[in-house]
Amino acid sequence: MRQAGRIVAGVLALMEEELKPGVTTAALDALAEDYIRKSGARPSFKGYPGSYSNYPASICVSIDEEVVHGIPGSRVIEEGQLVSVDAGAIWKGYHGDGARTFYVGTPPPDVARLIQTTRLALMAGIAAAVPGSHVNDISGAVEDVAIEGRCDIVRPYVGHGIGTKMHEDLQVPNYRTGRPGAELVPGVCIAIEPMLALGSADVETLPDGWTVVTTDHSLAAHFEHTIAVTENGPVVLTTA
Ligand code: MF3
Ligand code: CO
Predict the structure, then answer these.
(1) What domain count does the chain have?
(2) How far apart are CA 189 and CA 227, in angstroms?
(3) How far is the CA of 3 from the centre of ligand 1 (A)?
(4) 24-33: pLDDT as tens digits
(5) What CATH number does residue 115 fall under?
(6) Is 43 near ligand 1, meaning CB less than 6 Å away?
(7) Whole-prediction pTM value?
(8) 2-18 and 25-38 are packed helices; what angle lies between their axes, rounded to 10 degrees?
């Protein structure tokens, strides 16, 4: 899983480099797929079953009010866009899943706050993933940072267990549920993935069956890491 995570981190670093005005989201997807395959892995998103159709691409590219699961295509990246990229790789049967949000140019202060708050919410969630804690401790840590940063939490989508499948049983909400949830014991691997919005975080899915947007079109950000709980605390797997 560490190797799968390294490959995902490599994809996201490559996307950061290539994310410039004029590039299409399909071109980004092609670069990502090529990188994943040349690393000896497979793109886990491609063909992933959805309620209407299987996911057609190797990454998700979600722009501005798009929260997650934006499908790459002919759309052109422009200055001033808020772009979330989500990537998944399977290496020798093990999964890595990660996401980051980038701004094309220099973000205005409120957008910088959204990006920073979402990133810090992820970091706080990771820090809470120590043995003996429970899933709700992660959820609470994420929620606190979101509130402190005056961002609204997208609730219908949650983090998840991950291992030999991309989505394993455990769910990791980005808000307190009022129950402790599963205990975090060494060996537990999870993807923590706060999704926050600047306005209302109510969401709907577009007719393409995948793209999740904020109903009020407010900007949204998404950061995700795959981590392992160990005796020595959380270890981030989706990093170089
Ligand atoms: N990274 C996403 C998640 O955490 C998965 C993308 S959906 C897919 O659930 F269909 F593209 F795979
Ligand atoms: Co995920």
Answers:
(1) 1
(2) 6
(3) 19
(4) 999 999 999 9
(5) 3.90.230.10
(6) no
(7) 0.98
(8) 150
